[in-house]
Structures are given as C-alpha cells and as structure tokens.
Amino acid sequence: MDALEDLCQEASEAAAKLGSAIASGGYIRIVSHNDVDGICSGTIAIQAVRRQGGSAHLSFSDHVYEGDLASLLSSGPELIVFCDMGSDLLGGLRKSGRPYLVLDHHHTGETDDRLVNPSTMGIDGTSEVSASGVTYLVARELNPDNVELSPIALCGAFGDMQGLTGANEMIASEAESEGLVERREELRLIGRVDRPMEYSICYSTLPFIKGLSGNQMAAAKFLRDIGVEVEAKTSISELDDEMERVLIRELAEKMVREDASTPEAERLFGRSLRLLDGPSPTIEDAVDYVESCSALGEYSTALAYLVGSPGSGDEVERLRLRYKEKIFEGVGTFESAKRMENLDYIDLDGWDEYVGKLCGIYANAGFSGRLRPVFGLSKREDSVKVSGRTNPELVRKGLDLGSALSEAARTVGGQGGGHSVAAGAKVPLGAEGDFLESLDRVVGNQLGGVVDE
Ligand code: C5P
Questions:
Q1: Residue of 76, 82, 149, 356 with fewest CB within 10 Å of its CB?
Q2: What is the rounded average pLDDT for all residues in the chain?
Q3: Which residues contact ligand 1 via a Cβ below 6 A?
Q4: Which one of 3.10.310.40, 3.60.15.10, 1.10.10.570, 3.30.40.10 gives the CATH number of domain 337-447?
Q5: Could you say which of 3.40.630.30, 3.30.230.10, 3.90.1640.30, 3.40.50.2000 is the CATH number of the domain covering 3-177?
Q6: Is residue 314 within 8 Å of 321, Cβ to Cβ?
Q7: What's the pLDDT band for 229 if we cut at 50, 70, 90?
Q8: Are 74 and 67 in contact (CB under 8 A)?
C-alpha cells in the first residue's frame, strides 16, 4: 500500500469511530485551530456530523494546552475531535480515558490509533495535505456525499500555502469530477473575476506587492504607466490574454525590484482553482475571506460563508476591507524592526492576531534582506506570543523555524513548534531577551552563516 492509501485507510478507521459516536446519540465536541486551515477543517467536521444527523459543538482556538483538556471534556461529549491541532495532546488525551480523535497535519513523532496525521506515514503535511484535507478524507469515508465538502478542503490547503500535489491533487480531482472546481493557470489576485483591477492590486496581501498593496492611487497609476488601458470597473478576468500577460510581467518585475522573495513573486501566477458552485468565484477569494474572518475572530461568519449561507457574502466583504486596513497599518511598524546576527524581530504589542501575517509579509515581500527570518513578539497577560516566518529559500538552506522556536522557547520555560516556514511559540513574560539570544544562536547553527548582513 502506498502512503496515500495508508492515509485513506486511517481516515476510514477514524470515520468508523466518528460514525459510532454519532449513532450513540451524544454530542461531538470539535475543537479546531483558528487559522484558515483550522476553520475549514472545523467546518468540514461539523458539517459531516450534522449531515449524519448528529449534534456537535465547534469552537476555535489558537492553541490548546494539556491543562485545558479537563474543562473541554467536563460537559461529557461522546467524542472530542481535534482538527489542525492535538498531535501534542495525545498523552493527555490517553490519560483522560475519554474517547477522542485527532485529525492533524503538523509533524509529529507520535503514533496512536486515534490519530490521523500524514506525517506518521511519511507524507509531507506541510505541502501535500492540510488538516482540512485530512478531515475531508474522514468525512468522505463517513458518507460519500461529503465529496461536496471537497472545495472547503482545498481552501484549507491553499490557506496553508499548499499546492496541488499528493493528497491535495487527489482531492482536487474529486472536486473536479463532481463539477465543483475548475483548474486554471492565471493571475492569482483576489477579486480577479468580480472586482475592478485596482481593487485586486490594492487589496492583495498574498502576494503583498510592496509599493502597491494598500495604496489605491499607486495601483491606478501603475496600471496607467504600464499601458493597461481599462474602464474603471474592468476586472482582471475581462482582460484579453495579451493584456493579462503584460499585467503579470509588470507586477512580477515590480516585486523583484522591491526585493520580494522568489516564491512570493511566483505566487502572482500559477495553478489555481475556480469555484464553480462556491461562495466566491476563486479559491484565492475564499481563502482571503476566511483569513479576514479569522484575524478578526469572526469565526461563525467564516463558517456561514463557507457553507454558502445567504447574506454572508456582504458580511465577509466588509470584514475583508476592515482586515486589510489593519494589515496596511501594521506594515507601518516594520520601520521599528530590530536586527540580531541571524534574524530580525519586531515588537508587535497590540497586534496579536496579525503577528503571523505581518511577519509573513516582512519575510517575503522585500522588507528585510531575503536571507533573514523574522520573528514578531506580542505581549499577552502573562506570556509573550511569538510568530516566526521565513521563505522557502532559507528552508532549503537548513532553516526549520518549528524546531528552532521549540528549542529556544524550551530554554526559557516556554513552548513552541510548527512548520519550517511558519512557526510560533509562547514564552514567559520577561524572558524575551534570553529567548531571542537563544533563538539567534539556534537559527545561526541551523543556517551555518548564510544569513544576509
Ligand atoms: O501563531 P502562528 O500563526 O505564528 O503559528 C504558526 C504555526 O506554529 C502554527 O502551525 C501553529 O500551530 C504552530 N505553533 C505551535 N506552538 C505555539 C504556537 C504556534 O506549534 N506555541
């Protein structure tokens, strides 16, 4: 059996456990990560339970610690399901003696017959399958009609910056054969089907186009300067092929001039999906709307949007514009970034939910040297939240932010982890200085001196 078949087999065993919990009539407690992939996973899980006639309670969190388990289990769910998190909670869950499922894709060395995690069978959970993909595989084993949820699984994958390889490719093919998505190679800016071009350029934050994102006048001038003559309301999808090619080339050249990372510039154009029966015309729009809701803590709006509830489209558009204004304001903090030997860090107090996104922009759009990871720190009541971001070029040179943050946080009594390009940590308040010193050393060791001056 190949690894993907193994994954489907484990999903099928998990589906059987979920199915019998639903059949026994109790309620299913679902706890999911609060980023795009987590929101999509949670949405798939709750839809799957409800479609089987079960009842479920879904909540979102940025992290669950072992100490939180007792309260999550106190109301006596028939089954607790963790999505996009929980691989580090297996010890605590086993100790609790209560039934659980963990549907995750973060790298783990743990094995457990109630865990479905691609990394346990050698599948790369960073690039080939998201937690939404894992949850979808369980949902579709529970009931084949849940193939209808496949676009939500793909939204989770794109939200975690994954492409159409491995299990994602399989899910895209299923969605395609059901007539739910259509593959396209195109300029991947939001609003490209249903918004004016200026809007697409100005509100794009993935990629973030330095000098144009957040500046509608600059976006309009850019379009005039490159000779893309258009009516005020023309969308990108209305351009003829030649004009679209000019736009792609000029945008890419602008990004390269601004020192964006190669993968960030490559994000402009490529394989994408149109959603034929989805809440928005493109997968980039869906990801962007869910991300806006996520940052603003408007999880139920994201859920309503993903399942196509009437009226949710106007609401997510309003949230998108609010979120983007906040991002553009946050980019202003980059001027205060500080430089250590092997990394940059930014004091992002008060930016909490935006820290990861802002660091992603800083690391990729050309705000730092290209060979330099960045960490954002934001104080909470009794701890400091840390987010680290880098670009794939540095990962290829040996950087793994997940293990770097885990190791550095441990030296000061904190906890950290995540993926090689995007990871986070929580460290005790007051320990930031020692933590950064340790992190700088660990990053330096991983990279062996390739960091930009
Ligand atoms: O919070 P942030 O978006 O920066 O997290 C990036 C990644 O790091 C996520 O996948 C998250 O699950 C992981 N993380 C972690 N431990 C933490 C914080 C984040 O494993 N304390």
A1: 76
A2: 94
A3: 62-63, 356, 387, 415-419, 422-426
A4: 3.10.310.40
A5: 3.90.1640.30
A6: no
A7: low
A8: no
